[in-house]
Amino acid sequence: MSDRLPPLTALRAFEAAARHLSFAKAADELGVTPAALSFQIKSLEEHLGQQVFHRHNRAVTLTEAGRALSPGVTNGFNELQSAWVTAKRLGDNTTLTVTAGPALTAKWLAPRLYEFARAHPEIDLRFSATLRTMDLERDEVDVAIRFGYGQDDGLYSVPVREEWLTPVMTPALAEEYSTPESLIKAPLIHDDSLDFLRPRCDWPAWFRAVGIAHRPEHGTHFSNADHAIDAAVAGMGVALGRRAMIIGDLLEGRLVAPFKTAIQTAARFRFLCLKGAETRPQIAAFRDWFLAETAKTAHISDAFEIIPVESLPPE
């Protein structure tokens, strides 16, 4: 028996029919008649020398051979689709798809993107704000900006500036809570999106950094960093804000950071793309703009005593 593969059209017909377990639905998906699809599957069965479907009155089921064949054919078409998309993207120098977390998008990227768009009108920028870790090969994404400790094997990765946290509040609240000790009685806002950090970068850690043994038992918790900062802007309380999330509000005066002690995490934002893709014109342009924008506010860090959280005494 020859190991020569059947025609690609026959494999595609089988894959769709096996996925739907319906010749009619598979034919509709592929834009052919049920008779044409049935012909392709019969051609595949002739090549294989055995049936891949049991035909019933109003349904089909996979035979043992069909069950053995289906996963590999599906994976093969998925790989082929991925390779095709990747190859097409290499010839496109005008479209740029970027993914980043919703908080960074709302608090840092969105207010600045008009500058990039104005400087590069030839680039069609598309943004996906999501916490899902997208696959740069399979998800048609060119650039990812991720926050964490950096499991970036196989990717081109550029770390961004260190991330630190410090209490922020409205100017009105700053008059009421003017010392670190006064924060013990303040309404505290908690950013639960940072719970994965080790060591933890939270309110107890900041209190230890200023020499106060206090573990807050109450407060308002948010699962998204931008929501926590928006609550602070609204005057709900005092948030332990991350550098990237608070810079805009600090510069515009909506928030103040009255205590000049900040705790620093080893987790960082990274600019990521596939290795080799960093030379594509639109990716290189976005990287250079992104790094230049972060450098514009680097001076803000100079106002703080920044203490690595790893150096703090244990609780």
**Broad structural category:** alpha/beta
Order of H and E elements: HHHEEHEHHEEEHEHEHEHEHE
What's the gyration radius in Å?
27 Å
Helicity range of the residues? 40-55%
Outline the structure in words.
The protein is α/β, with parallel strands linked by helices and 315 residues long. The strands form two sheets. Strands 3, 4, 5, 6, 7, 8, 9, 10 and 11 form a nine-stranded mixed sheet that branches. The mean pLDDT is 93. The protein has three domains: 83 residues, Winged helix-like DNA-binding domain superfamily/Winged helix DNA-binding domain (Arc Repressor Mutant, subunit A, Orthogonal Bundle), CATH 1.10.10.10; 94 residues, D-Maltodextrin-Binding Protein, domain 2 (3-Layer(aba) Sandwich), CATH 3.40.190.10; 112 residues, Periplasmic binding protein-like II (D-Maltodextrin-Binding Protein, domain 2). A hairpin with a 4-residue loop joins strand 1 and strand 2. Helix 1 crosses helix 2 and helix 5 packs parallel to helix 10. It contains eleven helices and eleven strands. Keywords: DNA-binding, Transcription, Transcription regulation.
